[in-house]
Amino acid sequence: MLHRFVVVFLAGLTLLSAAPVSDPRLAGAFREPAKNGWTFVHLEGDPYRIGFQNGFLLSAEIAEFQKVVALELSHDTKKPWSFFRATAEKDLWPLIEQEYRDELRGIAEGVQAEGVKLDLWDIVVLNAWLELGYYNTWYDKQQGQTSKAVVPERCSAFVATGSYTKDGKVVIAHNAWTGYMDGRFWTIVYDIVPTRGHRILMDGLPGLIHSGDDFGLNSAGIAITETTISNFAGWDPKGIPEFVRARKAMQYSQSIDDFIRIMSERNNGGYANNWLVADRKTNEICSLELGLKNVNALRSFDGYFCGANFPVNQKLLHEETEFPAGDISVSGNARKKRWEQLMAENKSKIDVAAAQRFMSDHFDTYQGKVEPNERTLCGHIDQSPRGLVSWQPPYGIAGAVQSKVADAGMMERMSFAGSAGHACGTDFKASDHLAQHPEFAWQKEYLRDLKSQPWTTFSIAKDRQP
Predict the structure, then answer these.
(1) What does the pLDDT look like over 283-315, one tens digit per residue?
(2) Span 26-51, average pLDDT
(3) Are the C-beta atoms of 158 and 404 separated by less than 8 Å?
(4) Which residue, among 452, 453, 448, has the nearest Cα to 432 in the 3D structure?
């Protein structure tokens, strides 16, 4: 249903609001017109109201995103959507605390208010989407069946401080790798003012309570991002869903200690990541490698941590992954080497501009030359020779779909710069790729062109300071 937009002039900024004045649940909420591929949404209030605003303002995007996730899950796991709805109700819901239950209910009622026929369990599945591959592997094992965890490589990222940055303060950056079919939805900028906890500015997907690719800042000065641990398998059915812990950590972390505690407590192993965290108040950075059996935190006031889907800790690598650590042709290993090169070459010079260059880097360390592919920081898995693709179908039409960067000054202002599409300036043409690779015809209904957009700076709504 098309929203009726009302132009509102507020604090020198023209905004478009979809909120009927008569509905108090939408008070203070708004979405702006798309800007360079991004949609900015401001949400505020108690958990239910925040959820309702999310569902209402992004109802059309949520409806289409659900269709894409349903298609991907059925293709990857050979299980119907109804299986995951049952998982959401019976296995995940009992482990979600009341605050986030209320927000999830709000999202469901928000989309329904706009005529979208999705319910609470559909919304919970969308929020748990990134960890359901881990659940599926565990579930099949319980049934005496064999299935391999679908844990593709997702993202390149770094955080640096001290002698590595131009001003000695923290810089953090991340690009999200995923399939282009679902990656086009990863262009929401959420400005969330909850009644409890800290204000949040993060990127995200429509209808989620967490970022998903986990790039965000809070008003306590904490910046967070991550990259997945490749070839990982592990699941604790009694653990708290990752999407709940990720949102809680973004909302309630006052310090790096808080972040480690929240993410580690009752960890279910789902969506296992190497988390990169910065505290602009102290200029400390952290790498929290969060497996299921192994949890490893490294911290520094002078150095860097990088992520490219490789396991950091050797014990975690051997006990919880099947990652080929010695294979330098593997994407995670090649990108790790590239990060090490860039950090050494740019020591004392890293700032926002340098981070933006890193996000568009096309140097393949395995081949020793510039060639965009699965081994470059700006991922182009779709351009890799078919025999070299580590991210096999259904993920062959994939790569970096957007990028974000921030330094300490931007964090203090609650601001970050984002680039939708490939930061390098390369566009993806869906029809051309499908014509060359008919094995991906199953994606045709929802696969779209991915246009590279210019870097754009986003900040919290100025009239609503934290």
Answers:
(1) 999 999 999 999 999 999 999 999 999 999 999
(2) 97
(3) no
(4) 448
| Amino acid making up residue 262 | I
Q: Which residues pair with 338 in a beta bridge?
A: none
Longest dimension (CA), the chain: 62
Per-residue pLDDT averaged across 422-437, rounded?
95
| pLDDT at position 154 | 77
- Do 201 and 459 touch, CB atoms closer than 8 A? yes
> 147, 98 in Cβ contact below 8 A?
no
Residue 19, burial from CB neighbour count under 10 angstroms (0-12, 13-18, 19+): buried
Are 61 and 107 in contact, with CB atoms under 8 Å apart?
no
> How much is the mean pLDDT over the chain?
92
What's the rounded Cα separation, in Å, for the pair 390 and 392?
A: 6
404 in Cβ contact with 423 (< 8 Å): no
Structure tokens at 28: 């203070």
Task: Extract the tokens encoding 121.
Answer: 């369990």
Nearest to 296 by CA among 370, 354, 229: 229
> Domain map of the chain by residue range?
156-186+224-236+257-458
Predicted confidence at residue 15, as pLDDT, reads 37
> Is 156-186+224-236+257-458 CATH 3.65.10.10?
no
Contact at 8 Å (CB) between 280 and 160?
no
Amino acid letter, residue 463: D
Position 83, amino acid: F
pLDDT at res. 151? 65
